[in-house]
Design goal:
Ubiquitin-like (UB roll); 5 strands; about 10% strand; about 210 residues; five-stranded mixed β-sheet; about 50% helix; 2 domains; alpha+beta
Amino acid sequence: MKITVMTADEQILTLDVDPNESVENVKALLEVETSVPLQKQQLLFNGKEVRNPEKLSALGVKDDDLLMMVSGGGGAAAASSGSANDLSFNPDGSAVNPSAFQQHIRRDSNMMGQLFQSDPELAQAILGNDLNRLQEILRLRHRQKDEYRRQKEEELALLYADPFDVEAQKKIEAAIRQKGIDENWEAALEHNPEAFARVVMLYVDMEVMVSH
């Protein structure tokens, strides 16, 4: 069967392996492909670290499944010991416990896949070993969201100044919808870090009455 492995530097590798192959042998193949020593590899499947003696078939790995390879570090066990406060954010947007936050996100392969699509720079920092860089990017994203929110609030105020203009009303409707999306995103970051990078698109049915 064929499996796909995504590495920390965004390499996408396709390996042809036997379903009964051990994780250790898969790591040996990856060592040849990536030059990362077997001992320093950490393989994740469905958000959980897989161990060397385990066989792919026993783990439920099937044809065309995705695994992620990150550099070994604190490991998934270290992340699971963190408290809820360890996964929260400071007022400047940085993580209270960047190591716990990093390991928590690393363990969710679906979340990492979304991050690589939506914010590859942040995904790289999460998979890397520089926690200062991770904190810098989190602060930058926080500042960018604050600036974006301020701009939208200013635009909304200007639009409300002429509420009977048809084009203004369309923009008001779009701005309200976007504001709901942004608030949902902020709430997810603050209260549900496990939902990080998953934005629920909110839509409001609205009928605009125009007076002439």
